[in-house]
Amino acid sequence: MRSVDAEVISPDKTPDLPNFAETFARQSSWEWNFGQAPAFSHLLDERFTWGGVELHFDVEKGVITRAQVFTDSLNPAPLEALGERLQGCQYRVDVLERACESLIAEFPAQKGELRELAAWMAQAVR
């Protein structure tokens, strides 16, 4: 039996193949991974010290068409506002983080919770 050595391919170590860099860049892009993707749903669920959160996303062509937020937090207003704000946004980590950050001005008392929520969503969607 013959053995074959594995070749590690990463952004730092690319193989010497024709058009590899262009293909890698195209297939790493958001447009390739989500913009052409079929419609899908994503459920995120987490328990924080301040309450449990469930996020339900419906995504079509990389855009959130429906965002529902369920929580048992004693102050659900920021999360309800987040659900409304996310509809129509691109399903991208930076967009989700910005949506949470933008709520801090409206709900400064929940700054810590919103930052914790943003970090969790970013981790879950990566």
TrEMBL record:
One biological process term in Gene Ontology: protein lipoylation
PANTHER family hit by this protein: LIPOATE-PROTEIN LIGASE, LIPOYLTRANSFERASE 1, MITOCHONDRIAL
Pathway assigned in UniProt: Protein modification; protein lipoylation via exogenous pathway; protein N(6)-(lipoyl)lysine from lipoate: step 1/2; Protein modification; protein lipoylation via exogenous pathway; protein N(6)-(lipoyl)lysine from lipoate: step 2/2
Molecular functions per Gene Ontology: ATP binding; lipoate-protein ligase activity; lipoyltransferase activity
Superkingdom of this protein's organism: Bacteria
InterPro entries xrefs: Lipoate_protein_ligase_C, LipoylTrfase_LipoateP_Ligase
Annotated ranges, domain Lipoate protein ligase C-terminal: 37-120
Gene Ontology CC terms, in alphabetical order: cytosol
UniProt keyword terms in alphabetical order: ATP-binding, Ligase, Nucleotide-binding
Chemical reaction(s) catalysed: L-lysyl-[lipoyl-carrier protein] + (R)-lipoate + ATP = N(6)-[(R)-lipoyl]-L-lysyl-[lipoyl-carrier protein] + AMP + diphosphate + H(+)
This protein's name: lipoate--protein ligase
Enzyme nomenclature, EC number: 6.3.1.20
